[in-house]
Amino acid sequence: MARLDAVRLAELLSADAAGFAPVFAQAGQTCQQVFGDTVKIRALLEFSNYCRRKCRYCGLNCTNTQLVRFRLTPDEIVNTAVQAAQAGYQTVVLQSGEDPYFTPEILGDITKQIKTACPNLAITLSCGEFPATVYQFFKDCGADRYLLKHETADPDIYAALHPDSSLAQRLQCLRDIHAAGLETGGGFMVGLPGQTLQTIAEDLLLLAQIPCDMAGIGPFLPHPDTPLGSLPHGSVLLTLRAVALARLLLPHANLPVTTALGVLDRTLADKVFCCGGNVIMQKVTPPSLRKLYQIYPADFTADTITEGRSKIEARLKALGKIPL
Length: 324
Ligand code: 5AD
Fold this sequence. Notes:
about 325 residues, alpha/beta, about 15% strand, binds 5'-deoxyadenosine
């Protein structure tokens, strides 16, 4: 395939179905060569929905007074992570809003405790922006990976959506995460207001430039209690195309089939496993709290950790995949 610069990427994103078909095919082949039929299942533990930020698309933003807030105790977080390991998960993702209660010291201590109890469990943190020294500290405490999506590569769209942050600061954090030796997870949303195919092309190139070891690409979903609540959701097809192109740009990256994509269309979302995606997340958050981690509106099951694990394994096997 010709060199994928921004112009070529935007051209491909706007191609008709026949024009894009070779990209899906090549992304599927690349994924097959790198990962075979395997799909990695990550345990997602959402441990606090408190957030000091005002991101205009996100239901957790601090101006949303409709949301009942919760936080797990450090002991509950460690115990849940241990249960996830016992249920067969090889990675736990600890995710929260930017909750000032969870200082770097507390997060580092939780990480150490989990590593001591489960040395083979990989730990991914996803708790927002910190100074470079803190990412290094997380690494020293035993964290393996860090997720922090760049959300959009357009500095103006970024500024309009994040009243208290900038794209430059976000990218600095991503570079700091990478420099700390943590596997670096970026990503962006498809369908944000003002976004064009050129923006998505730049989003894709940015993933390669950081460089990202993982990238979550998902459609924007309007949350009714946010300023963007009345906008249309992002396109599933465009998201699938973006994931396929990300696979070509980053052959070895872990690319999840994002939960947001599954919310819009489970069957289409499963197609991502044939055209680039090799990871899926499964919630291990205590069932009664799942509905409160409402980044965007979605339905959640009350499955226990083991039930959730067996169901997702069965779903992947039905697709001909080998769950890891
Ligand atoms: N629609 C889709 N994705 C969203 N996120 C936050 N709010 C929304 C929304 N309304 C995504 C962001 C964030 C991740 C935790 O969830 O990409 O990084």
